[in-house]
Each structure stands twice: as structure tokens, then as C-alpha cells.
Amino acid sequence: MSESDAPVLRAEGLVKTHHGEGAPAHAVRGVDLRVTRGEFVAITGPSGAGKSTLLHLLGGLQRPDAGGIRLDGECTDGWSEARWAVERRRRIGIVFQFFNLVSDLSVADNVELPALLAGMPPRKARTARAELLAELGLTGKERSMPGELSGGEQQRVALARALVNHPPLLLADEPAGSLDSKGTREVMRLLSRFHQRGQTILLVTHDARLASAADRVISFFDGRIADDAELDAGPPPRRAGTSGVLELRD
Ligand SMILES: Nc1ncnc2c1ncn2[C@@H]1O[C@H](COP(=O)(O)OP(=O)(O)OP(=O)(O)O)[C@@H](O)[C@H]1O
């Protein structure tokens, strides 16, 4: 299988136990998962089921106790923290519930930073940033600091930051978890729109309504996949970069 035919993400036999103050938490108890190019997969399940731990493993933010992960067919076994950091910039965009923007950098700098760190020439990074912010309805906010923005706006900046390097995979961990209903609708509409353009997305949410935006829903329970179902297919995803400007209406 050539690398381009390989699944964007493949996990086999993933296991992760957290050792905290109390009894060990068996968060992920043996997970096999394959995500193909262009899929929008939601992982849903009750609080404490292990969804965030799984997403952290898949993004290389935590190491599994057992099992392995392949990105575009490439085995990640033995990757160091530094290697994961480099590969994440190129291959995996991540958005979190609480945005995790750099509070003392402007909106523009937050979005440009990962592009510059990935080696994009400054002029190209500025153009990429401007295009994404325009698409996300944030033109005019470039000089704002994150603390001056609403939660929904901050999450849109986080989305721009996650996508500025055109990563093959977007991981989203409860991206609407701290937003009001308007912000939630915006974020979900944007995820759907990027998916329509061909973006592969893995969304973790405890909210079954949000999961229904995906075309495949995995029910996660007690550290294991309890169900894995394709939903009715919507219009086929288009190739990346072929659609027009986003509209953000209520
Ligand atoms: N860093 C940690 N140290 C110790 N235990 C942890 C740690 N992170 C998670 N856990 C435990 O692992 C289990 C799974 O947690 P996880 O956050 O992955 O679940 P979740 O499904 O994402 O939950 P939620 O929807 O509430 O975010 C829980 O019992 C949790 O308390």
C-alpha cells in the first residue's frame, strides 16, 4: 500500500492507564481504529469513558502503555516528544475545549506561529493567516488579544491556528464544550464546512447532537469502542481548497 492510499490514522491495540492519587484509571483498554481520508468521525460517550485520553494518544500528547499508531501509514513507535511536536505541526491540527491560545500574542501571531515554526516563509504565513481569518469571519480582529474576544471568536482563532499548515487530520476535543448555543452552532457549521472541503476530522464530544454532524459515530464506553456506525451520507466531500467563502449566519 502506498503512503497516499494508507488511512490517515490507524491505531491498533491502544491501552492507557492513568496512575494518579487514587486507584489506577484504565482510560483506554484496547482500541483499534482506522480513519480514512475525508472522513468526519465523532467519538461520543459518557464523562470518564476515556474519550479525551484516546484523542491525546492519537495526537501524540500522551504515550500509550501498549499498542501503536500509524499516521499516513508511517509507524510512530519510538517517536520522541520533539519528533511528535514537529510531526503534529505538519500532520495534525488540534482544537481543545478551552482554546489554548497564547494569551500574550495577538490573533494574527497565534495563527502565524505554527506556520512559521513549520518553516513556512513569513510572507506565505501572513497570506495563509489572512485567508483563514477571512474565511472564519475574523477579518479586523488580527490585532486583538485573545482575552478581548468572545469564546466563539477564540475558538475560531484556534481553528485557524489548527488548520494553517493544512494538516491531513484535525482532532477536536469538545470544541464547543465551553461555548453558548450560538458559538456551538458556529463551530459545528465550520467543522462541517471544512469536512465538505475534504478535511479529515476526528471529533470528541459527550453531546450526541454534535456527533450527528459527523458521518461516522463511534460510541466509547469504559475505555472501549462499544459501537461504530456510519450515518447517512451527506453530499460527497469535495477536494480541499475548492469551495467559496464561508458564511457565518445564525
Ligand atoms: N491525567 C490523569 N491522571 C489520572 N487520571 C486521569 C487523567 N486523565 C484522565 N484520567 C481518568 O481517566 C478516565 C478517563 O478520562 P477522560 O478524560 O479520558 O474521559 P472522557 O471520556 O474524555 O471524559 P469527559 O467527557 O468528562 O472529558 C477518568 O476516570 C479520568 O478520571
TrEMBL record:
Residue span of region Disordered: 229-250
An annotated Gene Ontology molecular function: ATP binding
UniProt xrefs under PROSITE patterns: ABC_TRANSPORTER_1 (PS00211), ABC_TRANSPORTER_2 (PS50893)
CDD domains: ABC_MJ0796_LolCDE_FtsE
Keywords: ATP-binding, Nucleotide-binding, Transport
Pfam family, one: ABC_tran
Domain annotation ABC transporter: ranges: 9-247
Entries under PANTHER family matching the protein: IMPORT ATP-BINDING PROTEIN
Descriptive protein name: ABC transporter ATP-binding protein
Source organism: Streptomyces tendae
